[in-house]
Design a protein that fits this description.
about 25% strand; alpha/beta; Rossmann fold; GMP Synthetase, Chain A, domain 3; nine-stranded mixed β-sheet; 14 helices; about 500 residues; globular; five-stranded parallel β-sheet
Length: about 500
């Protein structure tokens, strides 16, 4: 069944979205999606073709996402704030035939080298967003509706970029069945995440799996409404929670930390909230306690990753102690294993393995990486180290890989190091993650300059900012004479940490 049909069967006059001050009911949303779906098909796009979305957390993204899915296309969500080289790489890696551009991505898209994107044939942008050669979204939406294309559970719905469990960024293939299974699993958990009467705060970016499937997907699946906010500002977001009587807030630790430390915040601003959840990165016990003390709101934690669509565990609706990521969702199997692949004892740490219908089908055009992530028995090796207590509640301990997580976004050191090494003044570079009070971790770079050459820290950071997403850029650059290496000549990142 096509995932796009999750908006069917909800009351026509029920509000689905609040975006840019405008309300969109489920009836209107279905009409808009029907028209755009017909328009995409009319442009010659066929089931299985990739369509990239470089839109913010707004109505443009939602309508485009549902229309593309309904047409049988594979959606490639891209960060609209990314610099041109990042968007170029995403389009090239997935062979996208179409790109829908929101206002935030206008400048980056203007700089694309189209000669290196032979597959990209169709550009679409909203009225007022001038992109050379782009069709107007509103005009395409006026097309005659076409039927929803039937999709099987294993048909790919989304290509979501992730640093994965090993290696440089790659596109995880999430099927219609994967995404729908995770929505069903969330609703089957004792905490039952959402009801039709709920109002969710949609401040997480929709190019991130947490925002895409947990916030947007679950809201549309249950027939609730979501208040979409394109740029998080602690004060205005808190006002929106109070004004719209938001009942569910899901966010990354950085968001909760900002609220916990917001001067002059009204202690009653979150009185309408019945469920507050943190995910995408480790939540500190201190922030959780601060939120409870300040807003009289219990903040629970969950765990997941892109490759699992994303949720694996939640603490909401359980007696999980503070600091726990909760219990496993129904329909998901989890093992904790040692280096030899044997199950560990209760209280001992082990790598978390996950198996279930929500586990992705693999990495796009990368069978080697897929085989490294999912073993012959269907277990996904997450690279995350956890322990379980006598009551079955899980706790994250560490990561087995060098992956850095900044505000819930994965950063693979090799990618940042590759950009640093393109700088004419840098002879060698290594990148590690270091603790950060708001983002969980921050990127720190160690560089060796070429003989007789000088460079400033700010210049190197600016160099990275022109080529990488903001969260991947080093916050700090340390100049060193040499990098620590092991016997085989490999840089020892643990020594730098």
């Amino acid at each position: 069944m096509n995932l796009a049909t999750i908006i069917d069967n909800h009351p026509e006059d029920a509000v689905a979205l609040i975006s840019r001050g405008e309300q969109t009911t489920y009836g209107t949303l279905r009409e808009q999606v029907d028209g755009l779906r017909g328009g995409l098909a009319g442009l010659g796009l066929e089931p299985g073709d990739r369509v990239a979305l470089a839109c913010g957390t707004n109505w443009y993204f939602v309508v485009s996402y549902l229309a593309a899915l309904g047409a049988g296309l594979i959606v490639v969500p891209l960060n609209p704030a990314n610099p041109t080289p990042e968007i170029q790489r995403g389009l090239a890696a997935t062979g996208a035939r179409a790109l829908i551009v929101g206002p935030a991505a206008k400048q980056a898209v203007a700089g694309l080298n189209r000669s290196e994107l032979p597959d990209l044939e169709v550009l679409i942008a909203p009225a007022g967003v001038e992109v050379e050669g782009a069709l107007v979204l509103d005009d395409v939406m006026q097309s005659e509706p076409s039927p929803v294309v039937d999709r099987g559970d294993d048909d790919t719905a989304v290509l979501m970029f992730t640093s994965g469990t090993a290696g440089s960024p790659k596109a995880a293939m999430l099927s219609h069945g994967n995404l729908r299974a995770n929505l069903e699993q969330l609703q089957q958990h004792p905490g039952r995440m959402q009801e039709a009467s709920d109002v969710a705060l949609g401040v997480l970016p929709l190019f991130h799996i947490f925002g895409l499937n947990v916030v947007l997907g679950l809201t549309l699946y249950t027939g609730a409404r979501v208040v979409l906010i394109e740029r998080f500002d602690p004060s205005s977001a808190l006002d929106a929670v109070e004004r719209h009587e938001v009942s569910i807030i899901s966010g990354a630790p950085t968001m909760w930390a900002a609220w916990a430390n917001l001067p002059g915040a009204d202690p009653g601003a979150m009185r309408s909230v019945r469920l507050a959840a943190s995910g995408a990165a480790k939540l500190s016990v201190e922030i959780s306690q601060l939120i409870e003390d300040r807003f009289d709101l219990k903040l629970t934690e969950g765990y997941g990753l892109t490759e699992t669509g994303p949720v694996v565990t939640v603490a909401a609706g359980t007696e999980a102690p503070r600091g726990s990521i909760g219990s496993v969702l129904p329909g998901i199997e989890v093992r904790l294993v040692d280096a030899a692949g044997e199950d560990v004892l209760v209280g001992d740490s082990g790598e978390m393995l996950v198996r279930g219908p929500n586990v992705f089908t693999g990495y796009w055009n990368d069978p080697i990486a897929t085989a490294a992530a999912i073993d012959a028995d269907g277990w996904l090796h997450t690279g995350d180290i956890a322990v379980v207590d006598d009551d079955g509640y899980l706790y994250l301990v560490d990561r087995a890989k060098d992956l850095i997580i900044v505000s819930g976004f994965n950063v693979f050191p090799a990618e940042v190091e590759g950009v640093l090494l393109q700088h004419a003044a840098i002879e060698a570079a290594a990148v590690v993650g270091v603790p950060h009070p708001y983002s969980g971790e921050a990127v720190k770079a160690y560089v060796v300059l070429a003989r007789g050459v000088s460079a400033e820290e700010d210049d190197i950071i600016a160099w990275c900012a022109d080529r990488l997403a903001r969260y991947k850029c080093p916050e700090k650059v340390m100049f060193v004479d040499e990098l620590p290496q092991g016997a085989a000549g490999k840089v020892l990142r643990r020594a730098l940490r």
